[in-house]
Amino acid sequence: MARKKKGKGKKKAKQNLVTAESEYGKAPHTFVFHRGVVGKSVLQLLLDIRRTMEPYTAASLRTRKKNVLKDFVSVASPLGVTHFMVFTKTDTGTNMRIIKIPRGPTINFKVTQYSLAKDVVSSLKRPNMYASQFRYHPLLVLNNFSKDEPHLKLAATILQNMFPSINVHKVQLNKIRRCVLFNYDPETKLIEFRHYSIKLVPVGISRSVKKLLKTKVPDLSRYKDVSDFFLNAGQLSESEAEQEGPDNEVTVPQSMSSRGNIAAQKSAIRLVEIGPRMQLQMVKIEEGMCEGEVMYHQFVQKTSQEIAEARTLRLQRMKAKEKRKKLQKANVDSKTKQKEEHKQKSLDGIKKKTEQEEKSSVKAVGEEQEEEEVDDDTEYYRQEVGEDPDPALFPKQKRLPRTDKRKASSQGTRLPQKKFKFSSKSSKDSENKVRKGMKGNTRRQDSQERTSSKTFGKKSPSMRAGKKSGPLGRNANKKFGSPDRTQRRGHPAGKGGATKLKKGKVAGGKVMKKSKVKGR
């Protein structure tokens, strides 16, 4: 039997879940957000309005500066959102718009005054704030909206559609915890917005009995008997919120979760304000979503001719907009087509290039197989002469393989060349050696020219031109050998049979005399 009860309970819970989901999906939902910079106080007012519209609203909705109204509309349709409440702030004041999506209309209000929820709650002596009352939607109350003015009727229908409808025969009183009031003042043409928490209190019960109902044990030390505690005349319920009379007393048709409220018994209704407050002024009503024809304006009155001109102008704008959209769509389609063609061409070119590379690689492999035997000068010399060559004859050079050379030439890159780096000290020494050698060569050439002129009495063409270097150039010393110091000074040399010079003086300068030449 216990198992059967558990199965029935699970089945009933599933049915309740399905009905709750269907009710939640059918109920109207609202997005509350702001556009532009609104300030801290208006932002807090927006959060208070979101809490008022719970649970059928997005409590943690976040917006960005880049978002436009179309973004919210595109997101709202799959989520079942039916209304927008948009707050904006200008230099003149704060504005609020109520938009019925997706096709309007739009009601524009000016928020003349407002008070935040925290300010309202702080002004109360006994606030009635608890989290569970926001689990259920509030009850809507409209006052003075039943006049013959069409704009008021339209505003009343939009406000009614923002909140879920109530079936009086099936409603559960425990789910009615809050109340939203819209009161229209015909003299000032302002709408008062209030938010209350509903509380039921049993009538005709003293405070002492209420304490017992609240499961609080009273202090009975002052009384001799329990009857004195209950029969004390000063303990009657005469609070400020509870007024005696038939105005606020009702007969409860259902048993309530609060203590003392029994079915078919009288209870008093208390409304405790939990905020926020707003004072609204209806400015205008327009068709569509913020861009249609103005149906009502409180401050501007137009004639029928002006209305017709505005309508024709709006139609022209709509036609121009549609034309621009078609042109943009055609441009986008042509660009996408060009991109696809370019993509296909590039893919074909890549395919052709890969095929060419494969063919060239196959050809290179064939050439490598044909030229496997690399020419080696050292081996050739060894085979022909029969001896190993001198190392200086064939200096070893690091060569790249043929495949690397081919790759470098095909890619158009230069092969790295060997660079010789000398230290600063070694480079200076080598320069000095070269300079000394050059000086020695020039001196030797000069001495040879002088000896030849002494022996034969003629000057060489280089001496006539004033040049230090001889006719043989730098290779003169290598062919004939360098003369000794004794030869330069005119002394005879032992080996080789050098000439013997004699000096003589003549007026006007030195004259070179012929000397006796010894035979070799």
TrEMBL record:
Q: Which GO terms describe its cellular component?
A: preribosome, large subunit precursor
Check the record and name the Pfam families matching this protein: Brix
Provide the residue span(s) of the region labelled Disordered: 237-259, 319-520
Bias (Basic residues) ranges: 319-328, 500-520
Among SUPFAM superfamilies, the record links this protein to: Class II aaRS ABD-related (SSF52954)
MF terms in GO: rRNA binding
Q: Where is the composition biased (Basic and acidic residues)?
A: 332-361, 443-452
Residue ranges of every copy of the Brix domain listed in the record: 28-291
Q: Where is the composition biased (Acidic residues)?
A: 367-378
Q: Name a single GO biological process.
A: ribosomal large subunit assembly
Q: What is this protein called?
A: Brix domain-containing protein
